[in-house]
Design a protein that fits this description.
This protein is an alpha/beta fold and 257 residues long. An 8-stranded parallel beta sheet has the order 1-2-3-4-5-6-7-8. The chain is 42% helix and 17% strand. The chain has one domain: TIM Barrel (Alpha-Beta Barrel), CATH 3.20.20. The protein binds zinc ion.
Length: 257
C-alpha cells in the first residue's frame, strides 16, 4: 500500500538537514512514497528544497502563508516564480486566510491570498489552501478566483455543509490527524459522505498528531493511522481507500504514477 502526505512542514519538524532526510526516509519505509513539503516561508524554502533534493519521495510547494503577511520578503512574487522553476515543485502554497491568529489585518491577508491565486492561475499550478476561522471569505474568494488546476482545502476543519459547497468547485478536501479525534463529528460526517475521488490525507506535521500517537510530535510516517481511521469510518476496505486517495494525490499535483 502506498500513501501520500499532502502537507508536511519538514523544516518545522527538524532544522537539521540530516534529520530531515531521516524523517522522509523513515516515512518511505512506512509506505509514504509521496510527501508534499510545505513552504513555511520564502526565507527558508530554498534551503529546505536543497536539503531534500536527494529524497525521491519528496515534492514541494512554494508560496506565502498568511502568517507571513506582514513580512513576505522583498521580491516575493519573483521568488515564487524562481521556486516553481525548481525540480519537483508541484503547487503554490500554503496560501489563504487565518482570522484566528490575526496576522496583519484582514484586508492585507485577502489581498495576498488573491494575488497568489492569480499567480497560480498564470503559472498553471494547483493551490494548497489554509483556512482558519475564515471559511466564508475563503469560499467566496475561491468562487471567483480558483485557478484552473484547482486546489486543496488542507487540514479540513469545517462541516459537511461547507464541504458540499467546496465540492461544487471541484476542490479537494484533505484530512489531517484531527479527523481521528473522537469528538470531531463534523469531520467524521464529511469523511463518510464525501466522494472518495476528492479526498486527500496529510499529517500537517509537526502538528495535528493522530490520536494513536497523542503527545508526540507528528511526522509523515504516522500518516497510515489517518487512512485506517477513515477506512473504518466509511466501512470500506483499507486497500481500496488508500489506493484511491493515492491516485487523487498524483492527479491533483500532476505527478506521473
Ligand atoms: Zn500547514
Amino acid at each position: 500500500m502506498k500513501f501520500f502526505d499532502t502537507h508536511a512542514h519538514i523544516g518545522l519538524i527538524h532544522e537539521d538537514p540530516i534529520e530531515q532526510l531521516i524523517i522522509v526516509k523513515e516515512a518511505k519505509q512506512e509506505g509514504v512514497t509521496g510527501i508534499l513539503s510545505i513552504c513555511n516561508n520564502l526565507h527558508d524554502f530554498f534551503q529546505i528544497h536543497e536539503n531534500l533534493s536527494t529524497a525521491d519521495n519528496v515534492y514541494h510547494s512554494v508560496g506565502v502563508s498568511p502568517s507571513e503577511v506582514t513580512n513576505p520578503g522583498r521580491d516575493w512574487e519573483q521568488k515564487i516564480e524562481e521556486g516553481v522553476a525548481l525540480p519537483r515543485v508541484v503547487a503554490i502554497g500554503e496560501i489563504g486566510l487565518d482570522y484566528y491568529r490575526k496576522f496583519g489585518d484582514k484586508d492585507s491577508q485577502i489581498e495576498l491570498f488573491i494575488r497568489q491565486l492569480e499567480i497560480a492561475s498564470r503559472l498553471g499550478y494547483p493551490v494548497v489552501i489554509h483556512n482558519r476561522e475564515a471559511g466564508t471569505d475563503v469560499l467566496e474568494i475561491l468562487q471567483e478566483k480558483l485557478p484552473p488546476k484547482g486546489g486543496i482545502l488542507h487540514c479540513y476543519s469545517e462541516d459537511w455543509k461547507y464541504a458540499q459547497q467546496a465540492l461544487e468547485l471541484d476542490l479537494y478536501i484533505s484530512f489531517a490527524g484531527n479527523v481521528t479525534y473522537r469528538n470531531a463529528r463534523n469531520l467524521h460526517e464529511t469523511a463518510v459522505n464525501m466522494p472518495l475521488e476528492r479526498m486527500l490525507v496529510e499529517t500537517e506535521s509537526p502538528f495535528m498528531v493522530p490520536s494513536a500517537h497523542r503527545g508526540k510530535r507528528n511526522k509523515p510516517s504516522y500518516l497510515r493511522d489517518t487512512v485506517e481511521f477513515i477506512a473504518e469510518l466509511r466501512e470500506e476496505p483499507l486497500e481500496q481507500i488508500a489506493e484511491a486517495i493515492y491516485a487523487n494525490s498524483l492527479r491533483v499535483f500532476g505527478i506521473d504514477g
